[in-house]
Structure formats: C-alpha cells, structure tokens
Design brief:
Strand content: under 5%
Radius of gyration: 17 Å
Strand order of the largest sheet: 1-2
Order of helices and strands: HEHHHEHHH
Shape: globular
C-alpha cells in the first residue's frame, strides 16, 4: 500500500478503525434510545431482519465509531446538538459497551436463525434492559463492567487513563 496521503499504512488503518475519545454522552444515550425503539419494534413484529440491523449497527459503531452507523449519525449530527452543550465522557468504555451489544445482538440473531426464537428474544430483552439503562437513566452497564475489569487489572490503565474514576455506582 505504501504511503496514503502522507501517512503510513498503519496510521491509515488506525484512522479507519478509530473510535472517538472523548464522546458526547448525550449522543450515546440517544443512540441507545434508538436501539431500544428498533429492538421493541423487532420484538413486537417478530421481524428477524430487525435483529440483523441491530447487530450490524453495533458492529459498525464498535469498529468505526459513529462515522458509518446511521443511528449514531442521527444522534451525533441531528439530535444531540439540539440538547445544547455536549457532556464529554471517555470513549474506550463506550466502545467496550458497543462490543458487548454487538456480541449480544449477533448471538440473538444467530439463535433466531437456528430456530431458537425464545432464547433469541430473551437475549434481545436483556440488551433492551441495558440500552434502556443507558438511554433513560444515564447508566452505562458496559462502562461499569469496563471500570470493574480495569479496577481488577484485566484492562490496562493505558487503555483509558481518564477511566480510573469509573465505578459500578456511576459509569
């Protein structure tokens, strides 16, 4: 590949897969609320493709940040700016939470595809609870898990030095 616009190849790929740090908590909460709405519609209609859309959205956000995800773009560019000044929080715990959402929604979609609908809808319900906590109460369960793992030394402090104050009581 060589040089791309004055950057080395590693720098190029780092930019492609970069996640913002810090992130606007309001945008994250709005995105979580949109996930809740999409998941509720999916569960009420039984539309399996809804699970695929939810999983794809999580994967887009965890891999590329908000740049490619339609829900995140709506949140970041349209809805969150209407709330006023951004409330900035560390990005790495939010990416970790998106990774948990990607794993859970993908597992739910695979369970549904395997004919295990009750297990798929149960797992999606757990995801709805976590997304609802973020959207409506401002409590990021994935961020709390990140903080717990960092406190236990399983996530190095260098990953997020600003995260040292993340606790289970308030993420």
């Amino acid at each position: 590949m060589g040089k791309l616009q004055g950057e080395d190849t590693a720098g190029y790929w780092r930019k492609v897969f970069e996640f913002p740090n810090p992130v606007n908590e309001y945008a994250a909460r709005i995105t979580a609320g949109l996930v809740v709405v999409l998941a509720a519609v999916t569960m009420l209609t039984g539309w399996g493709w809804g699970l695929a859309l939810i999983a794809a959205g999580f994967w887009l956000r965890v891999l590329f940040g908000p740049r490619i995800s339609p829900l995140a773009q709506l949140s970041v560019r349209v809805l969150a700016p209407r709330l006023g000044r951004a409330k900035l929080v560390p990005g790495p715990p939010k990416r970790f939470a998106q990774g948990i959402g990607a794993a859970m929604s993908t597992a739910s979609a695979l369970l549904l595809a395997a004919g295990l609908a009750p297990a798929a809808w149960t797992l999606l319900s757990v995801l709805v609870v976590a997304a609802s906590l973020e959207a409506f109460a401002g409590f990021c369960l994935g961020c709390a898990i990140f903080g717990f793992l960092q406190h236990r030394g399983l996530i190095p402090e260098e990953i997020c030095e600003a995260c040292n104050n993340i606790t289970l009581s308030r993420a």
